[in-house]
Amino acid sequence: MSLKQQTPAQPLQASAPAIPPAELQWTFNPWQRNWRRPALGLALILGVALLAGYTFTTPRWWPEMIGWSTVSFLLLFGMTSLIYLPVRYKLDARGVTVYFLGAPSFRAWTHYRNYYPHKDVVHLTTMPRPSPLDPFRGHSLQFGSADTPGARERVLAMLAAHIRRE
Fold this sequence. Notes:
- By secondary structure, this protein is an alpha+beta fold.
- The chain has four helices and seven strands, in the order βαααββββββα.
- The chain is elongated.
């Protein structure tokens, strides 16, 4: 009997827990979700780089400023590049693979001991309980785009099936 055919007198039965798929893959592109944030971030690091270039070369600032600003911009962009560039994620039976700039970073499920879901991201950590070291000891996985319904639930079901929370 389908759900539409049930009468109010019949109680709804709880559905079985969702079985996670064998593999999940998705790409998170920050420019598709909200283009203003990455654009504002780029403008901010460009301003800081120009200010650094000017500060490093005062009083003869003009020709050397271009070189120092370029170096400053490249350093700042490199440290914050996850904010601007797409990242591809793959969860399978072996573990978690994060592809950034084409380079894979793989961690087996046994590497992680806990995870913390947030609104737009889930943080996988090696610590069994919350710790101040969590941001430095795991991966943060951005959920798929807003036009992919159920992406968050599928990712959390996959994590629940593979990571034993303590």
